[in-house]
Write a structure and sequence with these properties.
Helix content: 25-40%
Shape: globular
Number of strands: 6
Number of domains: 1
Radius of gyration: 15 Å
Strand order of the largest sheet: 2-1-3-4-5-6
Strand content: 15-25%
Length: 152
């Protein structure tokens, strides 16, 4: 099936995420290739991943694309657009609406299992509510739980 899709040039819609910081909406793609603060975001993201791993986070490799090599799976998962948006929001916490107590991220596709687990633990670590609006519903992450009760 994947070969047929490649041969007919069918492309998967790229995942995009948006977060408002300082009355400006910032857009993120997987890997954040086009963001001017990409390097500092990736550095902070690496630190955050380490902190969350200490809290029990384990990458959900079933969420990765199937046509990449095993050694690149974690890198691909770690650079999903919603994770980049979250880190950017945390880095600019003082410019967030609502005094930074709630981080709101919009997505154009569904959140994957790995990012869902990541957001749950991040909400506990930062003691903030993280709201992710994906293509199906709102996910309200607070104290390591989600309003969808892990069913979406």
């Amino acid at each position: 099936m994947r070969k047929e899709m490649r041969d007919s040039k069918v492309r998967k819609r790229p995942g995009l995420s948006w977060v408002e910081v300082g009355k400006q909406v910032h857009e993120f793609t997987s890997g954040g290739q086009h963001h001017p603060q990409r390097e500092s975001i990736l550095s902070r993201l690496e630190t955050l991943i380490g902190q969350l791993k200490e809290m029990g986070y384990a990458p959900e490799i079933s969420s990765a694309l199937h046509d990449i090599e095993v050694e690149h799976i974690e890198d691909q998962l770690f650079h999903h657009s919603e994770k980049m948006a979250l880190v950017f929001a945390i880095m600019n916490e003082s410019s967030l609406p609502n005094g930074g107590n709630v981080i709101k991220i919009m997505k154009n596709i569904r959140i994957c299992v790995d990012c869902h687990n990541f957001m749950k633990l991040a909400s506990k670590l930062f003691q903030k509510e993280i709201v992710v609006r994906d293509s199906n519903r709102f996910h309200h992450f607070k104290y390591a739980t989600c309003s969808c009760n892990d069913y979406w």
